[in-house]
Amino acid sequence: MAAEMALIKPISNFTRTSPKFITSTRKSFSIVKMATQSTASTTKSGKPKKAIKETLLAPRFYTTDFDEMETLFNTEMNKNLNEAEFEALLQEFKTDYNQTHFVRNKEFKEAADKLQGPLRQIFVEFLERSCTAEFSGFLLYKELGRRLKKTNPVVAEIFSLMSRDEARHAGFLNKGLSDFNLALDLGFLTKARQYTFFKPKFIFYATYLSEKIGYWRYITIYRHLKTNPEYQVYPIFKYFENWCQDENRHGDFFSALMKAQPQFLNDWKAKLWSRFFCLSVYVTMYLNDCQRTAFYEGIGLNTKEFDMHVIIETNRTAARIFPAVLDVENPEFKRKLDRMVQINEKLLAIGETEESSLVKNLKRIPHVAALANELLAAYLMPPIDSGSVDLAEFEPQVVY
Ligand SMILES: [Fe+2]
Ligand SMILES: [Fe+2]
Fold first, then answer.
1. From ligand 2's centre to the CA of 60, what distance in Å?
2. Do residues 235 and 382 both lie within one domain?
3. Rounded to the nearest whole angstrom, what is the distance from the C-alpha of residue 211 to the centroid of ligand 1?
4. pTM for the full predicted model
5. Rubrerythrin diiron-binding domain: from which residue to which, for each copy (predicted)?
6. 356: exposed, middle or buried (C-beta count within 10 Å: 0-12, 13-18, 19+)?
């Protein structure tokens, strides 16, 4: 899982019932926890804690119907499961190309010490959010690896090996936080964070997109910094080339999983859901990143150009498997995204005021309606029919 897993239901957090980041200060080193609001006031040592505001579009943790997953991957019940393909994928994961890749050096601390002022804060936030998103993938894949062991040991082992990768990614990001004298308390995070439930088919759509969009984000940043080394302000980006190959492999595995479940790809409902998940993931990334332009500008990127590149490439990739995708290359799509950014800025401004939550919620209503309107209009733009040619093997009557 990569930087943008958590993106569905972009307007569901307005009531602020979700947990928030807290920081407990301990000499010069801080543990960053995720806590429910009721436990967020003091540390064990009684020292003051700095609340890091959880944003509207913060990374989420996911859970699913594991019993249904077991049924879906039962080789006796599902004859579409291409065991040779999964066996080949398993061998690739076992090869563990990045076993020795994530090794730190002294450049990290030196670079972190040089980052000061607002850019330092925004780097910390980038590391926290990325670590949370990677860790979210670790938890989900670990549980799937455990639960599918009996019904499909091959698929189960792949999930376990993917959780290995995500743990490595999360751990590496957490080590990065130590350069800034911080650490995420991942054990606490596991218990305190709210989990979003998705049915298996929605886990497939969301996770596939998350992995692929993660791949495109990492590889785009890596290539940009390779050609513009003056913006290489922190060495973690040098690791993105191999790192993103992990995300690409994870995405390919979900692609194989979806091909084994053609009922999730070959009807009108699948087309509607594919477009819905594409829209949710793209809009959430765009709104998130436009709130953090200082980060992207700090590494020499134009935020909106970067995001549009990532969206277009992810959409082209998704078109190989999803039966329908959005027409993101139509300039009207970007215009709609930009209008959503403006609306989101107004919503954020309301959240910043000192007014009561009742007044804030009342003031939000017209903006939420406007945002919903833009989302619906983007969703209803004429889509692009797409899909994998491989599906013809399963559904010869369907012409893609
Ligand atoms: Fe991943
Ligand atoms: Fe990852």
1. 14
2. no
3. 5
4. 0.85
5. 125-258
6. exposed
